[in-house]
Write a structure and sequence with these properties.
Shape: globular
Number of domains: 2
Radius of gyration: 21 Å
Bound molecules: flavin-adenine dinucleotide
CATH topology of the largest domain: Rossmann fold
Length: 330
């Protein structure tokens, strides 16, 4: 009989990624509503040392596989190992991260389990003893609520990072940790040769809490220095529209949108970006959106919480000074 809610964590370089705590918090809420326990599966080299910390987010028990073979995410090692653990546990609900690796992983895992998968969910709730999942469609133009056929366990949902609330951890609570006895596949089809980090140690857009983005209205690459400065003061990073990237002003890694990255920061500042649907697809789930554009009819204003109709070359320098003053007095 299916029982329990189980989250699949992401562990990189000695720590769990923030999205793991978000899905643990969401999993706790769902487990309480379903009257089930909250379990976790944690894979990675060195993960055992920190696995019990998941207890702070409401996880009761963690099944770990700590092995050098699992240092980096590879579908051919991660998917069969997690699938075997889940086949033994037989949970009702499985939550994964809709991160870059998580998107690849979740689809393969669901296929291997023969389970239904709702991808990139922005909201989850319990109805009729099962899960209901809200997810964006048509590049964020519409949202749909998905449900699973009755008794079709497990219900697998991947969760969009930075959207679901993350509990403040209760560090006095520790989860029980058990080593999962599973056969580790050799995984010799692919290997991670190297991981190239951004030279400047730039924060990944998908993890940033503040993004200051520039579009064609920035007029040239040199003017992005203003955005770098503002992002630096606000503890964020710089993004760009496709026009700015296609013009060679910014690297493709900075592109936000349908063919770039989907981001969900707490604050997204769009400077000189018109707000084409393909751009909105990547940033409209941001918590607060501020748009600076000299055209009052620019579509970005329909999504903005705060709109500044102004020439950005007039506005930004004054705004940066004001933010600096505020920061120095805080
Ligand atoms: C299949 C497909 C996929 C795509 N994927 C993406 C994607 O992932 N991401 C993406 O961004 N786009 C994507 N696009 C492109 C998208 O359609 C738009 O062309 C692009 O987003 C426009 O970029 P922009 O807003 O910077 O430029 P523009 O649309 O040219 O807008 C520039 C804005 O700057 C304002 N402006 C100009 N000067 C100033 C000033 N001095 N002060 C203030 N405001 C000023 C203007 O009023 C204007 O609104 C895609 C398109 C297609 C067809």
């Amino acid at each position: 009989m299916a029982q329990g809610v189980c989250i699949i964590t992401e562990f990189r370089e000695g720590t769990f990624r923030r999205v793991s705590f978000e899905i643990a918090s969401e999993g706790r809420k769902l487990a309480d509503e379903l009257g089930e326990s909250l379990l976790a599966v944690a894979l990675g080299e060195g993960v055992e040392a920190v696995a019990s910390d998941l207890g702070g987010y409401g996880v009761e028990k963690v099944y770990v596989v700590d092995d050098a073979l699992l240092k980096d995410y590879r579908a051919e090692t991660y998917v069969p190992v997690v699938a075997e653990i889940l086949q033994n546990l037989s949970p009702k609900v499985v939550l994964t991260a809709a991160s870059v690796d998580g998107k690849d992983f979740s689809a393969r895992l669901a296929a291997r389990l023969g389970a239904g998968l709702a991808t990139d969910c922005t909201e989850l709730k319990v109805e009729g003893g099962g899960l209901k999942a809200k997810r964006p469609m048509y590049a964020g133009k519409a949202f749909s609520w998905c449900e699973w056929s009755e008794g079709a366990w497990p219900q697998v949902a991947s969760c969009r990072p930075n959207v679901m609330d993350c509990l403040a951890p209760d560090t006095s609570k520790k989860a029980e940790v058990e080593t999962a006895e599973v056969a580790l596949p050799e995984g010799n089809l692919t290997q991670v040769v190297s991981i190239e980090k951004d030279a400047g140690g730039k924060l990944d857009l998908t993890e940033a809490e503040v993004i200051v983005s520039g579009g064609r209205g920035m007029k040239g690459p040199e003017n992005f220095a203003m955005l770098e400065e503002l992002a630096g003061i606000l503890g964020g990073t710089v993004g760009a529209s496709r026009s700015a990237v296609d013009s060679g002003w910014r690297p493709h890694a900075d592109q936000v949108g349908q063919t770039g990255k989907v981001v969900t920061p707490n604050l997204y500042v769009a400077c000189g970006i018109s707000g084409a649907i393909q751009h909105l697809a990547g940033m409209s789930s941001s918590k607060y959106i501020v748009a600076v554009n000299k055209d009052p009819e620019a579509p970005i204003f329909s999504k903005a919480d705060y709109g500044i109709v102004e020439d950005l070359f007039q506005f930004l320098p004054a705004f940066i000074e004001e933010v600096k003053t505020l920061k120095s007095t805080c």
